[in-house]
Amino acid sequence: MTQDLGRRTFLTATGAMATMAAIGTPAYATEDARDAATADEYVDVQLLNITDLHGYLHGSSVITGAAGTRYTVGGVGHLAAHLNRLRDGHQNSIFFGPGDMFSGWEFDAESVADESTVEALNRMDFRFSSAGNHEFDKSPAFLTAHMERGIPFPEVGWDDEFVDSTGRRFRGARFRYYSANVVWSATGRTVVPPYNIEWVDAGGGRRLPIGFIHLTAFGAETMPASFQPALRTLDEVETVNRYAALLKRRGVNAIILSMHDGAVAGSDFNSGSDPSGPAYDLAHQVSPDVDAIVTGHWHCRFNMMVPDPNGVPRPFVEAGYNGQLINEINLRLDRRTGKVVRELTVSTNHANTQDVTPNPELQEVADYWLDFATKRGQTAIGRVTAPFTRTRNTAGESTMGDLAADWAYWSGRQPIDPTNNGNAYPNVPADLALIAIAPRVGQGVVGGDLVSTASDGAVTLAQAFKAVGYGDPVVTATVAGQQIHDTLEQQWTTGTDGKIVFAPFAVSRNVRYTYDASGPVGDRVDPADVLIDGKPLDVARKYRLATMAYTFVQGDGYPALATFDRPVRHPRDFENFVKYVRAQKVLTPAPLERVTAKNAAFAPRAIEVPAPSDEPRTGNNLNYGSFHIPC
């Protein structure tokens, strides 16, 4: 079957299906899209997107393309140079992203509240973004009030509102965030607008609309970093279909889905093989009115065409992370109706290679913030009288672990700042804290020792920032005394080889407990030997426990804490630990006497889970906030 499109004849969707298996570089909706550059009777629209930048203004990684060719990529200086090249000659070019533009693991971005990221995106004429899960890593108010509008809180020049590369204080983003499926639990209203409409020049004084629907990964409110009890996420397919119908009623006939959820589809960044994942499942289900699907969140790289429910191909793409790729989708719009001529759609993933001269303006921005953060990191914020280290005694206790537990206990007893507006319950102070210093699963929140290199014992911002944290908040929640007991028991498990594995918790300064090292796994801790403020643990009583969100949502592998009630989120770990060190002023390691092992001489030696390494934490292999499968 054929259809006349302007001056030539093209395959319709039925004929196009034969080409679906041939995913090349670039991806074409049909073979006729290969010569679409001559189709000047249509309105050309160029969509450019990056995803999961996570504040990486510098950075370098290697990705694989066709035939195993490897490319060294990264850096906003190179990104801006490639963007300028791609935009050249395109009257209608729109640059956007499907989320996680800020909030990640780079000290030079996180220590300046990602204002560096916003400045870089502003300079590149970034138009808008979906809200990713990491955009909620601080609070909804931080996203909407500070990042979008530049409102400072709480302390100008310390927490945010830093001087940018032009010498001005932060004024907020010149772009906006959107999400159709993140809503306030109490009202059902979206936290940010659900969609936006962009207008493109159709010539002759006419403009045509393009609608962008935005999604955040389902369940983002219960992910550890973006744990926000006052929010909930709506079903993705139902949400997209509802807003696609709304846009059609408004006369918008070109619709793009920008979603912060993803898939995996092979190693070649400009093709797709054996695709799977939530975004891929969604791509087969959402309304045929959606003309392209741009994904993120999984840090994967693919470029392919996937049929909609009517069998018509549409782009399905993801552009990696940390500025590795720029995805380009070229659309042709019917001048009369504004509909996308889907048979002519072309999509290409472009590597952000470092073999080009960096854009000097963006390179200057990146270098300025790296220097700024390095100098800021040398600021003394407190003092230690002796080193805090992760070296554990035979009972599993360490001075660094005790310090982390004391910080969590302190955090869980602080009042909630009004800007931390993602909570649904009143703040009830913590009764105790437990911190997994060598968890059964994943990596612990303790990232390093806290050791001063100064003669007076001074500790710098950078030292404290890197000693504790991976972007996860402390959460206080109500649990039963029985759960606390069971959690302590779950420090020991029997491995597949029959040997006992020990994955210890640190306990706060108001807790003392003794365990029987010779007892069987699951029966080593007597509740009577667990003292909280000097009183035995009451297994029938409720307690307010402070620990990491990652532990409550089962990222650490202690199932006794899988159920909890009335959670309250406190600030993120590295920022909050810095605040703790500043508040304490002087820190002195306490004797290791909180945990006692009896009958240790008669017990089989347990294999301890090793302490975390000092390797840098990156979003590629330690994305605590996403629970995705890194590519």
TrEMBL record:
Q: Tell me the Gene3D superfamilies matching this sequence.
A: 3.60.21.10, 5'-Nucleotidase, C-terminal domain
| Residue ranges occupied by any Calcineurin-like phosphoesterase domain in the UniProt entry | 48-300
PROSITE patterns documented for this protein = TAT (PS51318)
Q: What UniProt keywords apply to this chain's record, in alphabetical order? A: Hydrolase, Nucleotide-binding, Signal
| The keyword Hydrolase belongs to this UniProt entry's keyword annotation | yes
Chain ranges of the 5'-Nucleotidase C-terminal domain: 381-562
Question: Does the record carry Secreted as a key word?
Answer: no
Stated family: Belongs to the 5'-nucleotidase family.
Q: What protein does this entry describe? A: Bifunctional metallophosphatase/5'-nucleotidase
Its source organism is Actinoallomurus liliacearum
Lineage, uppermost ranks: Bacteria, Bacillati, Actinomycetota, Actinomycetes, Streptosporangiales
